[in-house]
Amino acid sequence: MPLILLHSICFIAATVCPSAVLHRAGFLSRRDARFFYYKKVKALFDSGYEINKIVILQSAILMSFWGGGPNNYWNFYSWISTAVTIAEALGIHRSVATTNMQSQDKSLLRRLWWILVTRDSACSSLVGRPFRIELDQSDTEMLTIEDFAHDAMTSDFLESPFRQNYALYQIEIAKLSIVLRDIVISRFYPGRRSPSTPDILQSRLYQWRGELPPTLTWQEDVPDHSNPFSMTLSVQYNHHLIMLYLGRIPSVGLRNSHDDIEEIMAIAAQNISTVACAVVTKSIILGMPHEFFHSIFLAQAVFYTKLKSPNKLLAQLGRAALTNCQMVLHESCECWDPSPWIMQLFDNLSSRRLEKQAANAEQRSQPSGPAEALGLNGGIGSTPGAGVFNGLLGYDPWQSNPMLSSLFELPPELLLPE
């Protein structure tokens, strides 16, 4: 096996390896082990050690699970962009159906391309970055289960339930990523007018769910702990429903009313929270596909909006649900790099909400003085958390994130340098 690919696989293995095994290998934590192998892969990549483009592409895809750090421009977005550049140079964004390649080579190229599409869709929508892949310029065929049969060490691939579910999951998450891209384009691409309305996109989600293979279907209230693939698809489905409507102002001609939209988002967020908590209580978090974690972010956004409710009971329920999601992210800190800064984000938002409520209560109980009346107190310079996201994220994805600006109403001082 090529050395750069070996270290890339070790990097992924360290992400999900039990802590006890890592300790026996001399690593203090998963983060320590991941950084050890990341440095090796990065050194080999920078030195041009490997010349096989497919191997380099495979390694770049694996390294897209690296989240980066403060003032580090090499993060998951950088690695995805690099992988897409290599893939397009190889031409795998175009159909190879009529070429003379062997069938297993065609399948490998298709799988690499659709893994990239899935990673690009999930990661770019998480931080509000433009999609690196332009699907209008691609005609690569959608995956089929036969594309995965070539990986089997034996001939019983299609008879193995786990392998079959894995293959079906990759196919369905690729299809779902196309819907996600259309949702993001319809909402957050100012230079493009999408023909897809919310009603059409919601119908596509319903249709996708209705066409799922039986082994990947789910019941909302009863997560199947033995099937991480159906659990991940369920939370991604609910994530996309939230993405479709969160922060959207109901317009004329929209089928769903404001109350309908609120109910859709509340149910979707609760479904995500139910599955996420079940994953933690069953201690199967290391066995979940990484797409699973992306959904928790928007579920928290829905619960955060509940904190603004004048109904104290509803606000308390929202805070409790938000806390549950924070606990799930805490459990995933060493296997999903965005967890710490998402936790930090909602910690700061919740704290500011509590401080604002306390200040409002104090103002109502005391007559306002000249400074308060003119709004001279509590200015930008006095904000305790000013610059927290710049210092934490380094590459600063939030300043241009259309979701944060519209959903959370982040004050400018929270994004200023300290």
Low-confidence stretches: 368-399, 410-418
Mean pLDDT: 83
Alpha-carbon Rg, integer: 23 Å
Instruction: Give the count of helical stretches.
Output: 16
How do the helices and strands follow one another from N- to C-terminus? HHHHHHHHHHHHHHHH
Q: What would you call the shape?
A: globular
Structural class: mainly alpha
Strand tally = 0
Percent of residues in helices: 55-70%
Strand content: under 5%
Biggest sheet: strands, sense, closure?
none
Task: Note the gap between the termini.
Answer: 47 Å
Your description of this structure?
There is one protein chain. Helix 7 packs parallel to helix 9 and helix 8 packs antiparallel against helix 9. This protein has 418 residues and is mainly alpha-helical. The chain has helices at residues 3-16, 19-24, 30-47, 53-63, 76-90, 103-127, 161-188, 198-210, 228-245, 258-281, 291-306, 312-331, 339-365, 370-374, 388-393, 402-407. The model is unreliable at 368-399 and 410-418 (pLDDT under 50).
What's the SSE blueprint?
Elements: H1 3-16, H2 19-24, H3 30-47, H4 53-63, H5 76-90, H6 103-127, H7 161-188, H8 198-210, H9 228-245, H10 258-281, H11 291-306, H12 312-331, H13 339-365, H14 370-374, H15 388-393, H16 402-407
Helix pairs in contact: 1-3, 1-4, 4-5, 5-6, 6-7, 7-8, 7-9, 8-9, 9-10, 9-11, 10-11, 10-12, 11-12, 11-13, 12-13
